[in-house]
Specification:
With 158 residues, the protein is of the alpha+beta class. The protein is built from 3 helices and 7 strands.
Length: 158
C-alpha cells in the first residue's frame, strides 16, 4: 500500500508535491524563482540569494524576522527547465532536522507553464514537513499572482 504524499510503499518519509499553472513563459517563471529582487514580491519581502552554480550556496533571506535564514546547496540549475536545492531551516528548533530537497520542474504548455514543485528527503515524522506544507501553497500562489499580474500576495502570518 502506498501512503498519501509518498512514492514508496509503506514509506514513513513524507513528500510534498504541488502543481500550479502560470500564464507566462518558462523563462519568466524561472527568472522569478532565481532573481533576488523578483523573489521579494512573492516571498513577502524574503528573498532568494545564490550564484546558482551547482554546488554553490543557496539562502532564503528572512530580513523581517528574528529567525535564521533558510540555507542549502544548489543541486541542479538547468534554465528554464529545472532547479533543485537543499533546504535547511535554522529557527524554532527545526535546525535539528537535516536538510531536505526542493525541486522545481517547468514545462511550457502553449501559453502557460506547468510548474511542479517536489519537496522531499524529509526525516520520518518531520516537523519541517508540517511547516512547508502550510508555506509552499501560499508562496506558489503568490508566485503565480506576481508573474501574471506583477503583484504578489502577502502571507497572513506576517
Amino acid at each position: 500500500m502506498t501512503k498519501p504524499g509518498t512514492d514508496k510503499p509503506n514509506s514513513d518519509k513524507p513528500k510534498f508535491v504541488y502543481v500550479v499553472y502560470i500564464a507566462s513563459t518558462a523563462e519568466k517563471v524561472f527568472k522569478a524563482l532565481t532573481d533576488s529582487e523578483m523573489s521579494k514580491h512573492y516571498w513577502s519581502d524574503n528573498y532568494v540569494d545564490s550564484t546558482w552554480k551547482v554546488g554553490s550556496s543557496f539562502a532564503l533571506r528572512l530580513p523581517r524576522q528574528e529567525k535564521g535564514d533558510i540555507t542549502g546547496t544548489v543541486l541542479e540549475f538547468d534554465p528554464p527547465r529545472r532547479l533543485a536545492y537543499t533546504f535547511h531551516l535554522h529557527h524554532d528548533g527545526l535546525e535539528k532536522e537535516g536538510p531536505s530537497r526542493v525541486t522545481f520542474d517547468l514545462e511550457q504548455q502553449k501559453d502557460q507553464v506547468k510548474l511542479t514543485v517536489v519537496h522531499d528527503e524529509f526525516e520520518a515524522g518531520s516537523e519541517v514537513f508540517v511547516n512547508i506544507s502550510r508555506g509552499w501553497p501560499h508562496v506558489l500562489s503568490s508566485l503565480k499572482s506576481y508573474v501574471e499580474s506583477g503583484k504578489g500576495i502577502r502571507a497572513p502570518w506576517y
